[in-house]
Amino acid sequence: MARDRQPILKKCKALGIDPAVMGVNKNTKRNPKPNRRKVSEYGIQLNEKQKLRFIYGILEKQFAHYFELAEKSNGQTGEVLLQLCECRLDNVVFRLGLASTRREARQMVVHNHFTLNGKKVNVPSLQVKVGDVIGVTEKTRGSDKMKAIRETRGAVPVPKWLDMDKDKLEGKVVALPTKEDLDFEVDELLIVEYYSK
């Protein structure tokens, strides 16, 4: 299994992402100088694609596959691509507040800490659908992390396309996500243009 071991802050600076999107608290006193190089149109499109890939932790081959699926489906390609990325199981776990970062959510899914519709799952890229219920396994419910999540009810805002029951540590997908539900800025049209060449 391939893993992304790039330094988060360095990559955030290169792609122009706020480190808070990645779950990193940046406590440095000096502000980094912005990159002042002139970037071509292709470079802007590539940067937008790399930014989306980095945020969701998706490798190139899988991201290209998501684009092919989005292109074949009904609806606007860019919006469907964002839906495919947002509906990954590891991202849903993160958005429900059951993990502090997407990377942590991915690791927790791989280590069998979650169930999907009552069955244990360990595939982070699994696509969730409307009506699916994501829960925490019985063994994990007693952990210190899950106790802390129960105590801090409402601390993490859950997007409107998800419904979270903090007492049961269970979340439900009530609708498909839209671009407005994202917790970062992205221009999906640039990504569509990049792959259309």
TrEMBL record:
Residues 87-147 form the RNA-binding S4 domain. One of its GO terms (cellular component) is small ribosomal subunit. Residues 3-86 form the Small ribosomal subunit protein uS4 N-terminal domain. It holds the Pfam family S4. Keywords: Ribonucleoprotein, Ribosomal protein, RNA-binding, rRNA-binding. SMART domains: Ribosomal_S4 (SM01390), S4 (SM00363). It comes from the Bacteria. GO terms for biological process: ribosomal small subunit biogenesis; translation. GO terms for molecular function: rRNA binding; structural constituent of ribosome. The keyword Protein transport does not apply. With S5 and S12 plays an important role in translational accuracy. Part of the 30S ribosomal subunit. Contacts protein S5. The interaction surface between S4 and S5 is involved in control of translational fidelity. Belongs to the universal ribosomal protein uS4 family. PANTHER family: 30S 40S RIBOSOMAL PROTEIN, SMALL RIBOSOMAL SUBUNIT PROTEIN US4M. NCBIfam families: PRK05327.1 (NF003717), rpsD_bact (TIGR01017). This is Small ribosomal subunit protein uS4. It comes from Candidatus Egerieicola pullicola. The lineage of its organism: Bacteria, Bacillati, Bacillota, Clostridia, Eubacteriales.
